[in-house]
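Figure S4 source data
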Amino acid sequence: MDLNALIKIIEKFGRVEIENIVITADELIINIPSAPPVKIPQTPELKEKIKEEFQIKEVKELDWEIPKESYKGYIREVSFGRPKSEGGRGIVVKIGGQRALYRFEEPQPNPPVVTFDIFDMPMPSLPKPIRQYFEDVMEDPVEWAKKCVKFGADMITIHHISTDPKIKDKSPKEAAKLMEDLLQAVKVPFVIGGSGNPDKDPLVLEECAKVAEGDRCLLASANLELDYKRIVDAAMKYDHNVLAWTIMDPNMAKDLNRKLIDAGLDPNRIVMDPTTCALGYGIEFSINAMTRLRLAGLKGDELVNMPMSSGTTNANGAREAWMTNKEWGDKKYRLALWEITTGLTMLLSGVDLFMMLNPIAVKTIKKVGEKLTNKFKMPKKVDWITA
């Protein structure tokens, strides 16, 4: 039975049951026409009543107070980099420090921070609208980092992808050598990532932490699937912070934080990453997890009152963001909008640090972040127009 025949059966009977079906396809899209809108008959009396009810009316000025919630807790402030006076490279970036959830409750003390993703090897799998910005520097991570700083990066995230045994199996020493070169090339602080291999990453992060001693980087990341104690030891020994990564479960995030602290990590060195789902691909679960964590911290739970990070680059994996479709518009802008919307949603959910790829999206998030740190006034009285 072909698809057209199936649609005709559904249109005729409104229901069809299929048993023992096997579908093999790269992509399957079924568009079933929706039912026509239901029309409710209206009597002349009903029409007149509706017309009267929905007339626009002017209402006198009303006294209105901005709704503010007071919290007994706070969000810890975490800093990256060190000033030259303390032997660092001169740039210090801070996140966190809030005592309220929303901007109108209290101006944010630190603007959201954007860290640009770079890789230690070329990444031809990146979507073309992003790849076109970096094709000339993909062979050289140092030049890649420099270009990201020109695009406005507050920090740089280096992913040591080639250390994965299944890719190039580069040694932790080789990763550390690249880390040294990057630290000499740019002044912004670093997020140091591995390849995602649970056996190799603790070794890579340990070696990179050593060469970056005292520069206060963010080691990314510690989770329950690898030797997080080794990462904690490296962070405390060489003066770094740790990214605590979990799936979208506030209880799991709290449990991981407790384990990291029990292993010796100062809680003021923790940044949480509860996982970011892209727009249209479960973003509501990320909103739920992040908002719950932020509120719990503000209410006084000191096991989750840490600033949060978002892997906003996950937005670039959404099919609707990168697929070629003329009806959806130019994917150069669509891809940027997908990352922007995902980032802004996370921003409103309490995220402080954004790992991003698209220069257009980075510029937008930074502009919004600047506005969030400025004091502003809202009118005490409002002229209401009601329907």
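Figure S5 source data
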Amino acid sequence: MEPAQRQRNVQWRSPQGISSPTSVSGKRAPRSRPPAPRHRIVLYSHDTMGLGHKRRNVLIAQTLQRSALPLDILLISGMGDGNEGLATAGIDCLSLPALKKSRDGSYRARHLALPLRDIIGLRSQLILNAVQQFQPDVFIIDNVPRGAERELDPSLEYIRKQPQMRCVLGLRDVLDDPAAVRRDWQRADNETAIRRYYDTVWIYGDPQVYDLRREYDFSPEVVAKMLPLGYFNQCDRLQYLGQPWQETLKAWDLPAQFVLGAVGGGQDGETLAIAFAQIPFTAENPGVLLTGPFMPESVRQTLGAIAQHNPHLTIFPYCPEPTILMAAAERVIAMGGYNTTCEILSFQKPALIIPRIKPRQEQWLRATRLKQLGLVDVLHPHQVNPQNLAAWLRCDPKFPKRSAGLNLQATEQLPLLLAQMLKISSGFTAQAS
């Protein structure tokens, strides 16, 4: 598994009417047990900014596919990137025409020269056609109850008329500032959608960090459908690689220990990336910067020029599975996306998080709560500069407190909850033998 590009310093029934077979001795052979009925799962994420939603859905799909549940899984995504490993796991992906979220929170077509109304109509029809043809037993929607710009409304209404179909909403632990959530959810009529369409709401987080059931003052009917699963243990991602992650890391010829800089998809990571690249790294304390696939080319060029004068900095423009770098890093300086934060917590890395504060406060709220628990350090994005980052690196590393007892069991809970929903026998175990 190689990065798409790397820069170093500038990186698978018995036919009816046919009698049962007999053995050579003439005795009737024992009947084979009919195969267990397979269940169909659809995962949806709107994917308008970065790879966070897509990567979370890929992990959910891989977790369910690896379980003993007999499943056929279709992942519907608004992002073509991040499909590595799905085909080999037996998971199909339908990529929608891409949307892009601007810094003010508005949507537009990412590539196609189409008005927003037209691209939403196209995406909505593709999703509905997929649901009607695939006929899923369970439809799992990520984060947005009605989809981007209500593009799921036709599919949700169709599913509601199919008694055999179940609908699940998956939410991150933090959505946004409570006032913004109340305003945006009221405008989208999300609570009505949850009451009308959804059987349950899975919360991917630990209430001791942030309990959205209380923070957002949802109605009792909606809260009654909510179930916290814990955070995702990102160490599980390493099980789905084509080869041991240590071998991949060795092939990349990286230092034995390094400081990792990570800016998610890179769409809005310019300030942190440039400040990280300017840290005076040394042979004993080298840096590795992962810029992400959506970083503007002009910023890449700036980073390349800086790296020419920073010989102990390695730049990865893109890495198919960034968890490998997280597993190997000694310390981490990163933006505060959900997946990145879960990786930091899963691998218990000393970390400085610089959260995004626009267009949502989600990253800032999560990071500050985790800081209060002694799990991470936090720096406001307005205070990002090479000097402050270097000063944090000069301090003794602060490893996350194990006594916090953080719940990282979402990947263990998912197959069990799905088995209950599908009414699969109690003899089911979460992992395949």
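The radius of gyration is 23 Å. The CA atoms of residues 234 and 343 lie 5 Å apart.
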